[in-house]
Design goal:
The complex is a heterodimer of chains A (478) and B (332). By secondary structure, chain A is α+β, with helices and mostly antiparallel strands. Chain A has 15 helices and 22 strands. Chain A has three domains: 292 residues, no CATH class; 94 residues, Rossmann fold (3-Layer(aba) Sandwich), CATH 3.40.50; 62 residues, Dna Ligase, domain 1. Chain A is globular and about 70 Å long. The two termini of chain A are 25 Å apart. In chain B, 64% of the residues lie in helices and 1% in strands. The longest helix of chain B has 30 residues. The chains are: A alpha+beta (478), B mainly alpha (332). Chains A and B meet through α2, α9, β7, β9 and β10 of A and α1, α5 and α6 of B.
């Protein structure tokens, strides 16, 4: 490399574009050569044009302060992350294996509970879990599918091994960025993408729409399908709009729906019209104020009873949160083994469950080497990264662990792989993760690629948008 | 044709109304800045405040209704719900909710217009350039109308959009004429005599009516002919007569939608509007122009309420007509 990438140094981390000195990435040779010929000024111009486009399109997060609402874009880095065909086959198979096991697990715990009776998982971890919904016991679902849309967070360690960091089996978000990022890249970099052979991401909407029609209550010919959103103030509202448009379905809020005569209806200009399938983007807790949180104004009173009677379908099903809990995550390799008699294709990150005394002891003894995560949080909040924490932070963490060990897990620090990223006037390595999206009806399908999140702060391992993260387009080569 | 959520019908209706309102407010401000001068050349900004019933709100914030404070109040003051910046904000919020049913072009343009107007400050309200600012606001609204006309799918969203457009435009035209009312009334005895032609010129131009007017009245220019033209000319797209005719047509179009065939919007208000729009200019001037304009506005409010009851699922208040349903309908 003699041009743009001449001074790029991944600093010992696994690089998504270059690989490692032992395992150079052969699949990116052409892309590297093209990138190398670009000038930094031209790259900056293209990046600025993409940002303007995002802002103009209103693909923004709304940040609320005391006086004003501020719309911010989720930073988009113009240099794509490239995945080889072989790596993708592995990720794809690993994701499908995982979702299959999760669905079997959910069907089991809401019916026979054999995995608990066989002592593979401590029963109280499931039955006393806040996300376990007794309402779902004995409720049969089409294809026994609970998780129709799953987002699986994957990281890659220094050896280049893909590992699962987290399963998102409730209402995973981010897929709209995958598709919009592709549009942006193709507009900003037609020359980079030309004749490379990139797997398309444009049919996500029609795939999901297909599955939603599949799960309609029996006997319904042409089902009425809607997307249920918490409304314009939700930070993912842009995505709800995007998906409703892609799938040609009404974007409804709880106040647009009502339960009448054992059915769900939406309020239209021509009067109530029956709704058969709901792709809901609101949490279980807010779904039905008569069953769950009574103060919730986002949901639909009485909808759970209609659901229980099989007169309306929900995607994802109610009660899937128990499967993506951080404690259950620890057991996922055992769950895969139990239901599929297979080893995980994508291993977990090594994890200690602090509710177990021996795991707690290990965690306390190695606090400065581990990542400690609260079980009930998401979005990167409350995470303590041992090697980067101050002595004071470690002491606070130690006290919390001792006080409520069941609220925490600890994991080895994964040195996330890096990607060349445009930073100020140079190209520098920044850590990335990957969230592929899996759609499941009768069978599972994985959107090629997924959402690559990038930690834009130098050295940072936290990719969440709330913590200074951005996104990249993700290319899977044909 | 598919069904439409009542809430989205309302969003479409109000998106159109707010943008139409912005365009007309920009016209009114521009006109006033240009010609609201008395014989000594001083500008009178009180009529605009009266027109929008904003005197109390304004004088809570300012001591004097001078050009700068009134212009700021109507363009950028977020404390004033009637300000252009707030109307564009609300248009964009309605569009944001409705966005999956709008074309990308419509959303993009509206979002960019919002980003622009929300970034303006006092320095941008320099009175020497005020006309240009008003022109840019009008152009933004006109670009929106053009995009709507060219890119909107012609389903129910479009019907409610148009209905909002014409109701608001009709309302704003009555306000535009009303602003000259105070200048007109003391000279009732002068009806038909030559007047300060330049001011009527500007009024006609502000309603984009000047050239049309000249074709119909090549020589005359009296308060009766000018206000009569702006209010009653059947071919002027901003006239009350034109807008009311469009309302009647759109309401007729509702019946062609299978989803709406069983819903009947009471049309007594439209009939009363048609009666008002068919009056003779001299009649109206003699009977009191201001009272006439008031009556049109009252009927427009009533029509908006009936639309809300019939299509948007608004709760009926005591004494209000309920949405009438023919047998076989599913609405409750």
């Amino acid at each position: 490399m003699s041009g743009l990438l001449a001074k790029y140094d991944p600093d010992g981390f696994f690089c998504e574009l270059f690989g490692t000195p032992e395992r150079p990435a052969g699949h990116t040779l052409e892309i590297r050569a093209r990138l190398d010929q670009m000038r930094i000024a031209a790259l900056r111009r293209r990046a600025a044009a993409s940002e303007r486009e995002l802002y103009g399109l209103g693909i923004t997060f709304t940040v609320y302060s005391d006086k004003h609402t501020i719309d911010r874009i989720l930073p988009f880095d113009v240099i794509p992350r490239v995945i080889s065909r072989d790596d993708w086959r592995r990720i794809e198979a690993g994701c499908i294996q995982r979702v299959t096991a999760i669905n079997l697990f959910l069907d089991d715990i809401y019916h026979r509970q054999s995995i608990l009776k066989n002592g593979v998982i401590p029963a109280e971890l499931v039955l006393r879990n806040v996300s376990f919904r007794p309402e779902m016991i004995g409720h049969d679902l089409p294809n026994k599918t609970y998780v129709h849309v799953c987002g699986i967070d994957i990281v890659r360690d220094c050896e280049g091994t893909f590992r699962v960091l987290e399963d998102n089996a409730r209402i995973p978000s981010g897929v709209s960025y995958v598709i919009e990022n592709r549009h942006l890249t193709l507009r900003a970099f037609p020359d980079l993408a030309d004749n490379i052979g990139i797997m398309p991401v444009s049919d996500y909407g029609s795939r999901l729409r297909e599955v939603l029609a599949e799960i309609a209550p029996t006997g319904v010919g042409d089902p009425g399908v809607v997307l249920l959103s918490p409304g314009v103030f939700n930070s993912a509202y842009f995505e709800h709009v995007f998906l409703a448009r892609e799938m040609g379905m009404p974007l409804v809020e709880g106040r647009d729906l009502l339960v009448m005569d054992g059915q769900v209806f939406m309020k239209t200009t021509g009067g109530p019209i029956r709704v058969d399938v709901i792709y809901r983007r609101i949490d279980d807790d807010f779904l039905d104020p008569t069953r769950f949180r009574p103060e919730s104004l986002l949901g639909v009173p009485g909808i759970m009873e209609v659901y229980r009677n099989g007169r309306v379908a929900l995607a994802n099903a109610v009660g899937t949160g128990v499967a993506d809990d951080k404690a259950i995550y620890t057991y996922m390799p055992k769950i895969i083994k139990y239901y599929l008699d297979q080893d995980p294709i994508l291993p977990n990150v090594e994890t200690w469950l602090c509710r177990n005394p021996s795991d707690l002891a290990f965690t306390l003894a190695h606090l400065d080497e581990l990542v400690v995560k609260p079980v009930g949080e998401s979005g990167g909040y409350g995470v303590v990264i041992g090697p980067k924490a101050s002595a004071e932070e470690l002491e606070t963490c130690r006290a919390k662990l001792k006080a409520q060990p069941e609220n925490y897990i600890s994991q080895t620090v994964v040195d996330l792989s890096v990607c060349p990223t445009l930073v100020d006037q140079t190209i520098a390595p920044r850590h990335v993760d990957l969230r592929p999206f899996v759609i499941t009806g009768k069978s599972s399908w994985v959107l090629p690629g997924g959402l690559t999140r990038v930690a834009l702060r130098e050295g940072s391992l936290i990719v969440n948008s709330s913590q200074g993260g951005g996104t990249k387009d993700t290319w899977v080569l044909e | 044709m598919s069904s439409l959520l009542a809430r989205f019908a309302e969003n479409s209706f109000w998106m159109a109304r707010y943008l139409e309102r912005v365009e007309n407010l920009a016209r009114i401000l521009d006109v006033n800045e240009t010609f609201a001068r008395d014989s000594h050349g001083a500008q009178d900004w009180l009529p605009i405040l009266r027109l929008h019933s904003d005197e109390e709100r304004f004088f809570d914030l300012h001591n004097e209704a001078d050009a700068e404070s009134v212009v700021h109040f109507y363009v950028l003051d977020r404390r004033n719900p009637n300000a252009i910046v707030n109307a564009i904000f609300l248009a964009r919020e309605n569009a944001r909710t409705l966005r999956h049913l709008l074309s990308l072009e419509i959303w993009l343009q509206l979002n960019i217009m919002w980003n622009w107007i929300s970034g303006l400050d006092n320095r941008d309200l320099n009175l020497a350039d005020f006309s240009r600012l008003c022109a840019r606001i009008k152009e933004g609204c006109q670009l929106h109308s053009g995009l709507a006309e060219h890119t909107m799918y012609r389903d129910q969203v479009w019907l409610f959009y148009q209905l909002g457009c014409f109701i608001e435009r009709c309302d704003q035209t009555t306000r535009l004429v009303d602003i000259k009312y105070h200048a007109l009334l003391p000279r009732l005895q002068d009806v038909g005599t030559p007047i300060d032609v330049s001011q009527w010129n500007v009024l006609l131009r502000s309603a984009a009516a000047y050239h049309g007017y000249r074709r119909v009245f090549p020589r005359q220019m009296t308060p009766t002919t000018v206000s009569g033209f702006i209010l009653f000319d059947p071919y002027l797209p901003r006239s009350v007569a034109f807008c009311v005719r469009e309302m009647r047509r759109i309401i007729g179009d509702f019946q062609s939608h299978a989803e709406l065939r069983h819903v009947v919007l009471p049309t007594d208000t439209v009939s009363r509007l048609e009666e008002l729009a068919s009056r003779q200019p001299w009649q109206v001037i003699a009977g009191g122009l201001h009272e006439f304009l008031d009556q049109v506005q009252i009927e427009l409010i009533a029509l908006t309420r009936q639309i809300g009851l019939t299509f948007f699922g608004h709760p009926a208040e005591v004494g209000e007509p309920l949405a009438v349903l023919v047998p076989g309908g599913t609405a409750a």
